[in-house]
Amino acid sequence: MEFSGGSKSKEDQPFKEACEHALEELNCDFVGLALQKSKGPDISWHYAAGNRNDKYKRITVRYGKGIAGKVISTGRPMKIEGFPNNIHGKALEYPIMLAENLNCAFAVPIHFKGVPKGVLLVGKRTDQPISESDQHTILDAAKKLEKEMNSSI
Hints:
The protein is an alpha+beta fold and 153 residues long. The chain is built from 4 helices and 6 strands, in the order H-E-E-E-H-E-H-E-E-H. Strand 1 and strand 2 form a beta hairpin. Helix 1 runs antiparallel to helix 4. The longest helix has 20 residues. The protein starts with 12 loop residues before the first helix and ends with a helix.
């Protein structure tokens, strides 16, 4: 599967549905899916549910930058609580949090051919942190997305 970032087709439907399903299933306000482009280090937000605007579509971060870039570069989940107070760096380095007015988020990597190439982010606009059980549900949702991505190769 190529992550060129422009085409919206039937192949994209499972990813959009996964975001919408996670939004309904979890106690959250926003669910987004970011994917690294097939060529180059840039990462863009491709799908969202619960979004207040379409700014997410215009956000692109570099590998290692922003939530998506950090999760992809480390291959590990990232939790943010009390944004923008409890972060490393500046608030501007977290454009998805600013664009969607999120206070808490949990982001997990999605692997493509064994390499982290995507991020599933669940966020809240309240100060209530993402619960431990919701974090496990998010990890399970990411595993399902991985299977979907890797089966459409």
